Amino acid sequence: MACVACEWTRTPIRALAILGIAGLIGTAHSLRTPIRLELKGAAPEPSIAPAPTGPGQSDPASPREETLGVRITLDQARRLYDSGDADFIDAREPHEFQPGHIPGAYNLTQADFLGGKTPEALEFLDPARRVVIYCGGGECHASENVAILLQQAGFTSIHIMEAGFPMWVEAGYEVEASSADEPEGNG
Amino acid sequence: MTNGSCCATGQRACPAIGIGAVALLALRTFIGGVFLYAAAVKLQDPQQFAFAIRAYRIIPDDALHLVTLGTFIVPWVELIAGALLVIGLWGRASALVATGLMAFFVYAVWSVIARDLSITCGCFGKLKGPFGCEGPIGACKLAENLTLLTTSLLLVAFGPGSISLDGMCRRKT
């Protein structure tokens, strides 16, 4: 019977030893492997010079004249959309993307980067061009996660449309659907 | 059925390898295997696991260092406890660790359902878990985690069984 008592005394001590060893290894691992949970350049970017449209002229509606931070409003996103200066990325799941999304948007989720893979959609995107990412709005983290992964992939001009897709629809802007075998959009 | 090499020595306390021992071996390898697989997926892509932890919104956004620590400590706990469960060394202790971890996962999944969040588990990467649950976290994932919790509790209660390194050590002494 003494051995049974020993077993139950040893068990919590051994369990704590397992947790301690895992804690030490995990902490050391975290110091050696960088992960990012916040976007670089979350502060507003400096103003961007207007694109020259002719001597002494500029288009007041052009988003190039604005100070665009990483997080942009629905109006700013709309102006980028109209100007054709940005690629749009829908960070929602494919089953949310297919019934309706911003026309020309690519569907790119954080799961597409699983295991360090390079998503197929990146072949169609220019890292030097502006990218506007959106998800379901509210407190969804999907846009921010995809933005971090795109920054790691070398994209430099990334914006998040904080209003999300529901507000785009509410504003009465265009929406298109795509079939299940066309998940990447047509941008 | 008896262990020939042990019982041939005529030891009185020689444990029999019966259905119970085989069942405990099956439970151990099942939960140990699940833990090892989950750990491998998480350690292969810590960035994705960090996103998954944050999506649960249990850790506040101003304590992101805790997310980072959890990203690496949780899979190492799974890896060590899973390996010990499979080989049956420190079986009860590793089952106790697995129980604690599963109890926390059950709470996390329940809280996601209670708050009506639409997030995926982040437990097994793109593959499904033992129950084959798909899509956002729901009743299937809760049932899966409760099953794993029950399994680990059974191992705490009954130990790793005689077909284990613990069992071998006990026979030698």
Percentage of residues in helical conformation of chain B? 55-70%
Give the overall pLDDT of chain B as a whole number. Answer: 87
Low-confidence runs of chain B (pLDDT<50, min 5 residues)? 1-12
Q: Count the strands of chain A? A: 5
The helix-strand sequence of chain A is HEHEHEEHEH
Summarize the helix and strand pattern of chain B as letters.
HHHHHHH
Unreliable stretches of chain A: 46-58
Structural class of chain B: mainly alpha
Largest interface summary: A-B, 35 and 38 residues
Beta-strand percent range of chain A: 5-15%
Q: What's the shape of chain A? A: elongated
What's the domain count of chain A?
A: 2
| Spatial arrangement of strands, main beta sheet of chain A | 1-5-4-2-3
Polypeptide structure, described:
The complex is a heterodimer of chains A (187) and B (173). Chain A is an alpha/beta fold and 187 residues long. Chain A has two domains: 1-33; 63-170, Rhodanese-like domain (Oxidized Rhodanese, domain 1). Chain A has helices at residues 2-32, 74-83, 94-97, 142-152, 164-170, and strands at residues 71-72, 86-90, 106-107, 130-134, 158-161. In chain A, strand 2, helix 3 and strand 3 (106-107) form a beta-alpha-beta unit. Chain B is mostly helical and 173 residues long. Chain B has one domain. In chain B, 67% of the residues lie in helices and 0% in strands. Chain B has seven helices and no strands. In chain B, helix 2 (19-44) runs antiparallel to helix 4 (64-87), helix 4 packs across helix 5 and helix 5 runs antiparallel to helix 6. Chain B is elongated and about 55 Å long. The model of chain B is unreliable at 1-12 (pLDDT under 50). At the A-B interface, helix 1 and helix 4 of A face helix 3, helix 4 and helix 5 of B.
